[in-house]
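GTP cyclohydrolase 1 type 2 homolog structure dump, as promised
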Amino acid sequence: MKLRDIAGELYSIYNPKIAENWDNVGLLLGDENYEIKKILVCLDITKETVEKAVKENVNLIISHHPFIFSDLKRITSETVLGRKILKLIENKIAVYSIHTNADFAINGLNDFIMDKLNLNGKTEILAEADFYDYNYIKNENEKVKGGTARIKILDEEMELEDLISRIKKGLGIEYVRYVGENRKIRKIGLVTGGGSSFIQNVKEHIDVFLTGDLRYHEALDTREEGGILIDVGHYESEYLFADLMEIQLSRFFDGEIIKYFDSPVFKLG
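structure tokens r here:
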């Protein structure tokens, strides 16, 4: 399957126009005429990710986090990023990144992680977007729907401690950090990754907010206000992107899909 055709399908599923303005999504490296037979999906493009892709003769890496954000003035072997880019080019491996557009899209990462918690209730979308956009690759106008935070309104209240247990089981993690006292909750907000910038917009609609990368003073302010925050962890809230992408890609791609899970950045001492 041509890289251009894969990009067209991904444009339909995760429209880049619902990504944050600061984000860098889409095809970051490679020739759209590449023939793609093997895809590696991952959270981050680390040195180990690149080595795995080369070893497995991968043609395309699809990552959640873009490995190119700021303007590049030179690509040389003097930097880690430069070495990764050069190695990918040498081995004709393309890179496509789906970041905040994957978070915000309908049936994207926020929805996928919320579903993993196995909670009964209806889901609402904060700052919902609903518009048509022209997919220049497929030459079609397409309906685009998405939004920022997901809010699960439970059919019945549950204890905070029970929600924490559900999170750890659903995401396969051993611990979370949280702020607030155990009490009954019903409205649960979620933004995967570092979603602290959404706290102010969502706090009036929820009882508890799940995200990663919470800072001390944000947590302190929330505790003083009587709110509840659960810090799942950045990696821990997003590493299942690989599972989501395997599901989405298998609907239109007949080649091999490799899921690569790198180790978490932080270790417990």
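The chain is about 30% helix and 25% strand.
lmk if u need the other ones
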